[in-house]
Fold each of these.
Amino acid sequence: MKKNIILMGPPGAGKGTLAKKLISFGLVHISTGDMFREAIKEGTELGKLAKSFIDDGHLVPDDVTIGIVKERLSKPDCENGFLLDGFPRTLPQAEALEKLSKEINRPIEVVINLDCDEEELIRRVSGRRVCKNCGAPYHIVNMKPNKDGICDICGGPLIQRADDNEEAMKVRLQHYVSQTKPLLDYYAKLGNLVSYNSLMGSDKLFDEISEFLKK
Ligand code: ADP
Ligand code: ZN
């Protein structure tokens, strides 16, 4: 079973949804977006700083983001494998991760890229709802909850993320194209990149990727 995985792809490609399925393999899910949203909810200094970038669709500065990932990846529960979702997003982050993962002897084994066209991304993000309590993802058309506006898992209210609006989404896509997409070349050169078309839907995607990870 492959472990120590990076999930890459534009906002709305389905990284979070896939990650939540893959944790059934015992991998620890590390989402920098979730970590920032948690800090915002708790009103910490980190949260206040992160919010000023996130709501408009900008990236949180590298030193801050690299710092929280370093701390998280060094924890004992990552020993059996981790799944990075939303990190790295810039070249300095990727370089810091290369260095760190070697230092702590937890090298990245595979980078999974989820491809998706821009029109579909915008459709997905504008219809996305998340549970206010547990963060579970839904979509008003594609992934409806059993009961409108209520989380199937915990019964919490479903809300729209502050950055899931048209303006912020445009900015997020620009950051993706200029800063994150070039990392695909970086990982292709390192030789551990695989790509999947996320248009196949989350169940099929999970089946195919599970098969690949088990090999
Ligand atoms: P999505 O993949 O849908 O854009 P995420 O939950 O991964 O959403 O991230 C939400 C926001 O959190 C990003 O738009 C960015 O502002 C911030 N963020 C998350 N990860 C990083 C990162 N690695 N570097 C900088 N900012 C980040
Ligand atoms: Zn919930």
Amino acid sequence: MEKGTLALAITGGSDNWSPARWKARFGEVCADRRVVLLPDDACAPDDVAYAAVWKPRHGVLAALPALRVIFNLGAGVDALVADPTLPDLPVVRVADADLTGRMTEYVVLHVLAHHRRLFALRADQQRHLWQPREQWAAGALGVGIMGLGVLGADAAQVLRRLGFQVAGWSAHPKSIEGVACFAGREQLSAFLRRTNILVCLLPLTPQTRHILDRALFAQLDRTSPLGAPVLINAGRGGLQVERDILACLDDGTLGGATLDVFETEPLPPDSPLWSHPGLVVTPHNAADTDPDAIAAYVAAQIARFEAGEPLQNVVDPARGY
Ligand code: NDP
Ligand code: OXD
């Protein structure tokens, strides 16, 4: 019997999201089934059993009557679950060592850059200024990670190994060795009060939208050698109130920020975020989804499913992540 077709529906913009590249890679790892790139007039919708997608056009999946599983090609499913016509089927998201390692690199890079005062040193260099700046031990700073899921938990462990005082905040209680774990809205203030560098790795849901606002930044600790606290957001742009970030950088509520994600992406050329001296902007590539690694991950999940084993990393539709 012929194996169900795998349909790809990919919208991206960067080379990483080149649909042709994904199709070529899926053609290799799913060589025993038909792989099509939607829209494809030659593909009968009721042949499609699986869809692998990134930000698919709304309605595209609802038009596939024999669809059995949807694979989201990234970790965050906010764009997918925003489709009001999304079929009631299992959605598998990416939770993969390759992506996790990339995000941990990004978080560690930016925590260390703020901690070791890289931006001030760079400014000194531009002025040919030999000016050793005070440095302190990692243990002098509290790093607080919002979101202790696959990505947050890994970053927390590496930061702890580097000597930072690491805390994390999640929806449900967690236990991670050496990491002070806080959960739920009732413990958010206690978590913030011990945080000097705030790292956000939350998913975007109705509960987390715009959580990164002035009221939250004002609760961060200002008594460490760093002085004003720092924000690093690599979760989603919808988590942050961008005008509050700019105003808090201006009035010293925040001492610096690194943002990988924005309300509007690509960040418009006239956005004031580009030129604020206290801000590091990266173009939503903290942790790229690598087609080689992720196509293999999806192929392995399809093999599990067809062998009657449970799918892994299935999104909980009630939670939205
Ligand atoms: P997970 O689903 O594994 O973890 C999410 C974490 O957030 C969990 O600890 C969860 O708590 C917590 N959380 C969710 N809602 C709340 C809430 N209302 N209050 C407190 N905590 C909450 O996701 P990942 O770690 O895999 O990914 C996190 C996000 O990172 C993705 O959703 C995506 O938006 C972003 N991302 C960004 C990338 C980039 O390049 N910038 C790349 C990849 C991902 P609990 O565990 O208790 O349920
Ligand atoms: C993801 C992303 O969610 O790339 O994987 O942002």
Amino acid sequence: MKKHLIAPSMLAADFTQLAVEIDMVNRSEADWFHLDVMDGRFVPNITFGMFVIEAMAKLATKPLDVHLMIVEPEKYIEAFRKAGADVITVHYEACPHLHRTIHQIKETGAKAGVALNPHTPVAVLEDLIEDIDLVCIMTVNPGFGGQKFIYQSLAKTRKLREMIVTANASTLIEIDGGVGLQNAESLLQAGADVLVAGSAVFQAKDPVATIAQLKAFKSAFDY
Ligand code: DX5
Ligand code: ZN
């Protein structure tokens, strides 16, 4: 059975208890770890890099979905792969030679993702969609967790789903930013395959139960 995936964003975890938080995700119904790398240049915030990811990889028992919010990501793709990344997502807005960068990621053996800022239309990926393993629709402006979901993203998700179906591609649609129990079902009905959730999971009284609830929603594409 094909079911949508849940990827808790570790940005919202308690970093003084990182091993405990990773263990919680390991024990839960979550599918991936979503790891947000920020450089203080592409986005107005700085988080962590390959050194911390390498440490997390030692404890994580599920794939690492690494979201690079950095300029010139092509310089660091091999390093993130070595650190343990299974999916490497770069921003469309940070890649003048996106086709080359996508193939550079695939050559390392990782899955290649492209993230779109809220103002970037999905149409820019039309000539490349078959080459992309995952498109990450940013539903907040990247840089911080805990922001409000931009509602226009729902229509954007539908458009992208249409593009993928038309191209007969197997690209996954990931939704990142402001996702929680309140909008998960509409996003899944619009065509989402992967839901990233940071604060909705880690600020919940029972994160494991919240992950299970997110996983239990019906998706238009579950069968
Ligand atoms: C934002 C990050 C997101 C963020 C999501 O720049 O890419 O992954 O951690 O956090 P929430 O779910 O709290 O919006
Ligand atoms: Zn992210």
Amino acid sequence: MKVRSLLVLGAQYGDEGKGKIVDLLVERAQVGTVVRFNGGANAGHTIVLEDGRFALHQVPSGILHPQVLNLIGAGVALDPIRLVDEIGELRRRGVDCQNLRISDRAHLVMPWHRVLDGHLGARLGTTSRGIGPCYEDRAARVGLRVGDLVDSRGRVDLEHFAERVREVGAWKNRLLTRVHGLDPLDLDQIVSECTEAAGTFAGQVADLCGVLEERAASGHPVLYEGAQGALLDVDWGTYPYVTSSSCSLGGCAVGLGMDPAPDLRLGVVKAYSTRVGEGPFPGELGDGARVRQHGALPPGTPLPQPDPALRQAALAGDEEAMGRWLRLAGAEFGTTTGRPRRTGWLDLVALRHALRISGLNALAITKLDVLDGIPTLRIVVGYEIRGRQTTSMPSRVRDLAEARPLYEELPGWSCLGAATCFEELPSQAQAYVRRLAELSGVPVRVLSIGSRRSQSLFLPEQD
Ligand code: IMP
């Protein structure tokens, strides 16, 4: 794979399996640098190795490759406390994180952001990681940045940071107590917790503009790793049921401070759809409200497994059972929150929208194996909204909520098995993939047929 730079974006509602694809491409394209440019600890990028599973949140997905420099760009909403937890967990597992750098311009997720998100975010079903309130403060020009915590020589700047926390925190405490009736936060404790956390990564904070320029000139490709997905983009997603950052090509330029000019712009798409939290979801299988009421799985709980009775009900045409089947067979529980994900058929209207807003020129399809054993597969190819058919993504969320999906049906397959190339897949699976490429208008370059690195197929470049 010969590329100068690559962009990897979610082309649905997040959780497409971007972590695995980034990790694979790092090796395949001999990537020298991986950069995260948006989102923060709301993301959950999973990489499964032979000896275990890594769930990354703020740290870029190239971290397991010691020769790759991993950058957290200025567009990321960085939670210093959670970052230190994440680095600590990686170190415990033998990943030293010396190959990590953090932009001094990234905004800090502060405790008041998390409290406000927890208090107000339920309406949208947010992850409660403080992301929305942090980006709000960025736009309102009252945010604190990594450069307020760590000075330009890579040293924790207690005096400056304490001053900024007192200034902004006093006002935030008035907001918490007087407007929301919540308890005030202890600002001294915030200063001590954040400065202690910063001690772990201060030496890795830098102005990344220069670093990126050098890396881009180094001859090894740079990979830009998007978080969340196109349908959660603050401008182009299903607003207001979106996250607060740009999850598209535009967000990449803004979050880095350079022209990313990626020659490979890869959209990662699951072979079916999932969505977490509130918001319209054409093609959804079953009752989303019921799924949303289910609590999050406590950390460490074994994932529930599908049973034969559920399978039988799903195959007999019970849509809710099919939705549950996909959730259990696909282990569709949030990497970050443990929340059960809503499930549905693949939506080509939404996918084409995702491709258009970021000019994506290739696809990686993940979790194709989860569709094993379903005799008839459906793809959403259009919407009918109050009697009118359309293949465009409506801007009004109300229209989308009323959209009746128009389906195309394709025959399924019984089992993908251990295919080592595209041609070894069952003919129906090949036809499914070809049809997706045809309907979306871009070639499929990567197929993931299981969670491990080895369960991946690269398709030859097509003209
Ligand atoms: P926030 O990003 O925490 O503000 O949440 C806003 C919406 O985006 C909610 O519906 C979340 O469930 C969703 N969301 C945020 N990050 C992710 C992600 O990484 N994967 C899937 N959904 C996400």
